[in-house]
Amino acid sequence: MILVQASFVAHLIIRRFLPVICFSLIPRNSFLLYFVVLVPETGVFKRYAGDWRKSCFYQSHLLFTSTMAAQGYPFSRKMETEMNLRRLKYFVKIVDIGSLTQAADVLHIAQPALSQQLATLEGELQQQLLIRTKRGVTPTEAGNILYAHAQAILRQCDQIHSAVNNAGQSLTGQVSVGLAPGTAASGLALPLLQAVRKQHPGILLYLNENFGTALGDLVLNGRMDMAVFYGSGMTSGLSSQPLIKEDLYLVGAHSVPNPGKYVELSDVAKLNLFMPRSHNVTRRLVDDAMAVRRLSANIIGEIESSATLTAAVASGLGVTILPESAARAMTGPAKAWMSCISGPVIQVPLSLCVSETLALSQEAMAVKKILLSLVFEQTAPVIEPMLVAS
């Protein structure tokens, strides 16, 4: 009888009081506490604890695990996954800002702790991810690869949370859209804002006007949902949906002789040209067309800025080649004429581009549908549409 009572008392102490005493007496940053909380996971106390999840031991376990999570101790597959997601968020923020110190301030975490998280991530991947310099940090080749994948993972996690939380409710969240300046779609900014506001008031629309190369990079790294710019299927990692085709036009100031409604490509080769660099789709199309005819463009300046290009053309120093809608947009500010290039006619596709690897959220799909309908409405009277998807 005495042995039974002693066994019961020992069982009660182990089950109810010992964990609480350990948790109270051992400092929270002590590795001993880490061992104590791991005991039920190893099964040492399971024959005593029974339904231990209902005990104060389990409450202590929960409190401690949350504390240890902030310090980077992985003690279960679930927590290890959570920590990896947290490290990915930290890594993305460091790359975005370019400084460990500033990233630590933004993330509200001590810099040594942030450096430790980065070191742990590099240890897991067995790769150096960042190069540290006096000016800050820059990603290595491996770091750039991780950055792109981390953007995709974190974005998909956000989409999951948004989809689950908004199940059965109206669409809410942010959608980002890029529009290349001077394109047939650049005038859609206000109509798109109005249509999205009317049909989906819970969606916050972010618009970015930039050149196609920059917009493509933003879509590729997951910082933009979709973009409309010239080109079709020329960038790896992007899925392009052609919307319309536009003829290329020669644009020049009135101080430069106007060739008339049409101009031969051979005559264009004799003029001083302002063009973007070779990565630009318009430049590539012009270079290819001239190469076929054994011609060479006389390029006197490479300009990426729309404002600078307009000023350069207006000065009369040279002419430029643009898609029809961009050419029309320049004729007023530059006081210029425009002439369609023939022999041959060169056409450039205007496309809606999204990432091949990042799925669009429901909100982004809704905005995409509105954008496509607006592109068709705006361009159909002027330019023959190639393809418009619903």
TrEMBL record:
<feature type="domain" description="HTH lysR-type">
    <location>
        <begin position="83"/>
        <end position="140"/>
    </location>
</feature>
<dbReference type="InterPro" id="IPR000847">
    <property type="entry name" value="LysR_HTH_N"/>
</dbReference>
<dbReference type="Pfam" id="PF00126">
    <property type="entry name" value="HTH_1"/>
</dbReference>
<dbReference type="GO" id="GO:0003700">
    <property type="term" value="F:DNA-binding transcription factor activity"/>
</dbReference>
<keyword id="KW-0238">DNA-binding</keyword>
<dbReference type="InterPro" id="IPR036388">
    <property type="entry name" value="WH-like_DNA-bd_sf"/>
</dbReference>
<keyword id="KW-0678">Repressor</keyword>
<keyword id="KW-0804">Transcription</keyword>
<keyword id="KW-0010">Activator</keyword>
<protein>
    <submittedName>
        <fullName>Transcriptional regulator</fullName>
    </submittedName>
</protein>
<dbReference type="GO" id="GO:2000142">
    <property type="term" value="P:regulation of DNA-templated transcription initiation"/>
</dbReference>
<keyword id="KW-0805">Transcription regulation</keyword>
<comment type="similarity">
    <text>Belongs to the LysR transcriptional regulatory family.</text>
</comment>
<dbReference type="InterPro" id="IPR036390">
    <property type="entry name" value="WH_DNA-bd_sf"/>
</dbReference>
<dbReference type="InterPro" id="IPR005119">
    <property type="entry name" value="LysR_subst-bd"/>
</dbReference>
<dbReference type="Pfam" id="PF03466">
    <property type="entry name" value="LysR_substrate"/>
</dbReference>
<dbReference type="GO" id="GO:0003677">
    <property type="term" value="F:DNA binding"/>
</dbReference>
